[in-house]
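We now fix the convention by which a protein and its fold are recorded. Think of the row as the fold of the chain written in a discrete alphabet. Here is one such record, which you should read through line by line.
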Amino acid sequence: MKAYCLIAAAGLLATAAPAAEITRFKTVGPTPALILQGVLVPPGAETLYLSGQLAAPIHPAKPTSPPLTMADYGDTKTQTVSTLTKIKGILASHGYAMSDIIKMTVFLAGDPALGGKMDFAGMNDGFKMFFGTADNPNTVARSTIQVAALAGPAFLVEIEVTAAKMPR
């Protein structure tokens, strides 16, 4: 009888303990930041790493020969939205949501229309459609890097993400 009571009490204590949560550290400053300062992922969290994703053509039914051009994929904002939409679908297929993304690395190629400089503002405009919204109030820890080129001359944006969530 005593052993049963101890086991039952231990079970109650285990269920009463608060579950670990992913902690998001907001960037401190005079204005609200678009990205996080960092994220703490506790032991036991499930983590999903996605390879870098590229935009889909604006008109996917268009033949791919001759090779598609930058006009077929759009500007930096258009490619950012396309890439994040693709990422949203991949996450969903694995049981994750955009709100589960904790870290993002964005690679931007220089835009010829901007003299070869990355369109950081255009990428942020696309980013803001997915983070810090009514549907997804979360944001992420993020790095954005200008690169010499991506996998093809038509691409301006490549994004890789890490998502994490606590098991239910």
Notes: Confidence is low (pLDDT under 50) at residues 1-17. The chain has four helices and six strands. The radius of gyration is 21 Å.
